[in-house]
Design brief:
- 10 copies of one chain form a homodecamer.
- Chain A is of the alpha+beta class and about 150 residues long.
- The first copy, chain A, has 2 domains: about 5-70, lambda repressor-like DNA-binding domains (434 Repressor (Amino-terminal Domain), Orthogonal Bundle); about 85-145, Cyanate lyase, C-terminal domain (Cyanate Lyase, Chain: A, domain 2).
- The first copy, chain A, is about 50% helix and about 20% strand.
- Chain A has 6 helices and 2 strands; from the N terminus they run H-H-H-H-H-H-E-E.
- In chain A, helix 2 crosses helix 3 and helix 4 (about 50-60) packs antiparallel against helix 5.
- The longest helix of chain A is centred in the middle third of the chain and has 24 residues, at about 85-110.
- The radius of gyration of chain A is 18 Å and the shape is globular.
- Chains A and B meet through helix 3, helix 6, strand 1 and strand 2 of A and helix 3, helix 6, strand 1 and strand 2 of B.
- Strand 2 of chain A pairs antiparallel with strand 2 (about 135-145) of chain B, so a sheet runs across the interface.
Amino acid sequence: MSALTREDVTSMILSAKRQAGLTWEGIAEAIGMSPVWTHSAAMGMNAMPADKAEAITATLGLPQEAALILQESPTKIWSQTVPTDPCIYRLYEVVGVYGPTIKALIHEKFGDGIMSAIDFDMSVTRVENPKGDRVKIEMSGKYLSYNAW
Amino acid sequence: MSALTREDVTSMILSAKRQAGLTWEGIAEAIGMSPVWTHSAAMGMNAMPADKAEAITATLGLPQEAALILQESPTKIWSQTVPTDPCIYRLYEVVGVYGPTIKALIHEKFGDGIMSAIDFDMSVTRVENPKGDRVKIEMSGKYLSYNAW
Amino acid sequence: MSALTREDVTSMILSAKRQAGLTWEGIAEAIGMSPVWTHSAAMGMNAMPADKAEAITATLGLPQEAALILQESPTKIWSQTVPTDPCIYRLYEVVGVYGPTIKALIHEKFGDGIMSAIDFDMSVTRVENPKGDRVKIEMSGKYLSYNAW
Amino acid sequence: MSALTREDVTSMILSAKRQAGLTWEGIAEAIGMSPVWTHSAAMGMNAMPADKAEAITATLGLPQEAALILQESPTKIWSQTVPTDPCIYRLYEVVGVYGPTIKALIHEKFGDGIMSAIDFDMSVTRVENPKGDRVKIEMSGKYLSYNAW
Amino acid sequence: MSALTREDVTSMILSAKRQAGLTWEGIAEAIGMSPVWTHSAAMGMNAMPADKAEAITATLGLPQEAALILQESPTKIWSQTVPTDPCIYRLYEVVGVYGPTIKALIHEKFGDGIMSAIDFDMSVTRVENPKGDRVKIEMSGKYLSYNAW
Amino acid sequence: MSALTREDVTSMILSAKRQAGLTWEGIAEAIGMSPVWTHSAAMGMNAMPADKAEAITATLGLPQEAALILQESPTKIWSQTVPTDPCIYRLYEVVGVYGPTIKALIHEKFGDGIMSAIDFDMSVTRVENPKGDRVKIEMSGKYLSYNAW
Amino acid sequence: MSALTREDVTSMILSAKRQAGLTWEGIAEAIGMSPVWTHSAAMGMNAMPADKAEAITATLGLPQEAALILQESPTKIWSQTVPTDPCIYRLYEVVGVYGPTIKALIHEKFGDGIMSAIDFDMSVTRVENPKGDRVKIEMSGKYLSYNAW
Amino acid sequence: MSALTREDVTSMILSAKRQAGLTWEGIAEAIGMSPVWTHSAAMGMNAMPADKAEAITATLGLPQEAALILQESPTKIWSQTVPTDPCIYRLYEVVGVYGPTIKALIHEKFGDGIMSAIDFDMSVTRVENPKGDRVKIEMSGKYLSYNAW
Amino acid sequence: MSALTREDVTSMILSAKRQAGLTWEGIAEAIGMSPVWTHSAAMGMNAMPADKAEAITATLGLPQEAALILQESPTKIWSQTVPTDPCIYRLYEVVGVYGPTIKALIHEKFGDGIMSAIDFDMSVTRVENPKGDRVKIEMSGKYLSYNAW
Amino acid sequence: MSALTREDVTSMILSAKRQAGLTWEGIAEAIGMSPVWTHSAAMGMNAMPADKAEAITATLGLPQEAALILQESPTKIWSQTVPTDPCIYRLYEVVGVYGPTIKALIHEKFGDGIMSAIDFDMSVTRVENPKGDRVKIEMSGKYLSYNAW
């Protein structure tokens, strides 16, 4: 009755990665996807297509059942309404400070609508800078227009 | 005893913009700053250098006292812990879903630290796409390393 | 300095409707839109295209500035995380009880994705029934598939 | 002293379904009920009549005690006041944006009352559309009129 | 533009009652309804039928527009999730302590369903008792059975 | 070191009741108390006098230590500030909608004070009604007057 | 239509007290009540008997209507679930740290019941002490025993 | 790796007390401290001096390691912001209703400062009274004056 | 009836400071106190001794009544449980990250007790540093030992 | 599958420290770091450089895997938005009372920016004082200036 859970799969991935001395870049390359998507799917924040689920299972030596679980649509849950980790909080702060600005510029450039968080992709890169290197985050989401009917 | 408040200045800017038929792009160009920064400073989420405060005051025909207020360091307040506006909520959702991923990749690429939300800039652009145009948000923040002492 | 606000416009619409003895069905018909959309735009939960904003302004005898405000993209705010009004709470309860079921069936019928609340429309109708008439709510939203990249 | 709990039964159903490669449509058909009701009862959000509880137990090969538990009136609990899963959040957003509109139209069409969430049923269907298929949710609840006494 | 609001009407009723030295029992008798319903409708927690709205308007000398407002379906709002007033808190405590018990007994006596809070009435009476008089609250609500479909 | 806990006792009672096919009415009759009190004491929301604790222990075949635990004053905890179960929520809604009314009538009938939730009893009964049977809840609590000193 | 409110009365009392250079001890003595009760009634946390309401009105030179308002049963509201003022927070902390202890000792000394907060009185005194004077708070509330029925 | 925790020690104390039929008064007397302090230290809300930790360990027959743990400074945690147990809630209510009064009287009697909750002691006693015995709670805390610098 | 409030005084101080082009350092020097204490008392977070209240009133040209209000013990309120302003949030983050560490070191260095926030003072200084100047915050609070009784 | 977790490492450190009778000062000295940083890294609130992780592992006799875990960037979580432990709460209170003051002085001394909580260090020391020893907390964080772009 004790089937493998998604939490088990996440924990197996983290453990296999640590023991093999792998990086997310490396795992992503091995399965032919981006590091952002690969990490989020490994954490249970995205579902994997069958071939990617099998590729990561093979790469990390996970049991076959893991590949099935990685293909299921996860229920995405975060338990902290305001995240306490300083690295994640700074992103929350950006939404609080600049959210209304992003909204105003989307309306100015596109009309009455939003940026999709579903038809969406993102990258995180390191940009060299003599005053101190910078983190660059690029998000791209499809513009969705409100309906009038 | 009823001095001009920052809320008054924000409301004067919005009203002058509507009456003059201006855009944020246009106002930003007039004062020689980016649209993201210009809007956020106008909303009371950033302080303006003296010359920019005077430029926007002149551009929009605001009273002289407004230029002083725009130079003060604002207390940045947002009252909704979870924003309800769908356009802003999608950004909050991105932080919930991808926050741990951004954290993991920053640690992998830089070490133990964070992306600053203070030494920070951002742009919002429209990217044409045959399947539907896309919103592109680019954030850049200085990497800050944790201290050990 | 005291420009007309969106709250003023909402309150003018409600007052004009009461004095003229109109219904939402009637106002919707007058401007050629559905009652659901018409009410929500009047309440500041949707932006109106220019012609509809002018039509409702003319229908209800509102000042010209109201038509401009009705065309702006509103910031959608609800202040009660859990709504207390019994009529609205029942809808919240439906989301709590049946939300996971709707999610499971969307995944089963479409794949890993969601129903859009932006490319979305809805109707509310009365269905006669000998055991007591029933409220019928029909929602239709575009299916959006998660990206993998 | 360790009797079977309802959580055990839910987990057994999910596991048996996965192993047998069944769908909710298929299980629902096997027990002669709708997919929405079948899923929600399997998740502990509705009680099953005796014959349906026995039918699902037989279909999925569950122990006999499971059929008794499926007949008990469950305590319906959801732990996230605001659901974080994007697919369920969109429904919460619909209640926030359109809740007051649904209320206004119920009052206009019926009088002072509500739509029941108890004497209630719902369906979820896929509607083909050249611009992208759509999710259609139909809810039907008995109108209940407030008492005056 | 400053129409009479429901809050104005509530406040007029309270003021007229105080000045005339009336009781809720007295007002209820004057309009031929129960004290519980009369008070709750006066507070904006129930809508009045036209004849009762006119009766209370006449009884208390309110302006004619008040009678129209008293007939509208109010949006029922309470702002304290946990009420602080000791008299009301005790009722909240009763729900916390005895809520699961009431649920269990309803299921035992009726089946899987609830007591309606819409098709509902209530009385509050004083019962003499040599050890100290007692407050008696009687609630009666229609039993509603859950649907299976 | 693993003594029997109150949660264990509650769970033993529920299990014994299910296996023996008993009802709360039946258990209450067996120990000579009301069903409301019996259920609430079994759930850990009231302490039992020694003879009742022994009677229920004997009736259900519980271990002797259970009788001791049932006599201890429980710490009454409910974890949902706003209950989600629809059957219990309706009672919470009644407090929100009618709480101020009950308060006003207690003050009118008794003076400045409250209804005790400690020196308190309650019954739940089924009332036949041709339009649909009704749930009747009767609460009786001692009136307590505020002190002035 | 702008009747005197309880907030007005509270504010008049505070203003009259400041202007006359009075103390709460002094006002309490003038009306023949304790300082604790006098302050709390003046703040709208207790209702005054008619003679005390008239006495304080006379003492402070308030308008006659104030005496009527001071006799009404106030709705006791505090808006901070956790009080921030350090002087009041320390009391909240005492409840958090010692609440379970007080409960255990009440049960040990009296049985299953509580200390009433209604049939209740309190004093605050200064106790000289060579190591630093101490605040002494004495509370006295009637023991109320839980009912079994 | 499974060292004894403070929770284990608390649970051992409660169990030993129940089995030995002891009271808090009795345990307190055995170790030469007050019942309030003894109970709170046993619950992990105060640290014990070495001799008292050894005395209670000997009295109740606890393992030697328990005496070490009872001497550590505990992290004082309460998980319910608003306590639900009626006996503890009444104390919370007293803070809400009378907190501002206690603050005003401390300021009047001492100056600008607070009552310490650290240099603090308390007793709970039973006071006989023909109208019903009363619970008397006496708190004594050192007055601390705010600094100006 | 509209007496000067503390909020009025705070706002007058801010306005006078802006018009006179003063700094907090300057005002503090003028009244012979530290900048931290001076600012906090001006904001209503500390009470002023009579001579300091008169000094600041004279320095800034405030009305005489302001000096009286500045001497009253303020009720210290902050409305954001988690502060959103980035400058203040960083301090909150320090408490979250390092709070348990400060607690552990206080217990190691002093025993079972706390640092007083009442008998407390603080300074904020600028420290030159070739890698970027640093903010230095020094807090000093009296150690208070827990009582055992 | 049960790898060592960070919680295990924290608990091993606390246990080894207790058994060896060490202090945080002592452990810090042994690894050549400050006590504040050492404790916070041991608690999972900072990552250790490799040599320090190995040093503490050797000092306390932890398994080799612990050294790897101590080098990972932890997710910093605190579960109490408002800390209840009195020693930590006082720090939270300081942020509430003096946060706006610190902000004002940083702006006055540096310009529009903040004190970093990342490029940050802190010490806790005991200062002898005839009126009672004092806790001294010194924080030093790099000043970060807001960007304008």
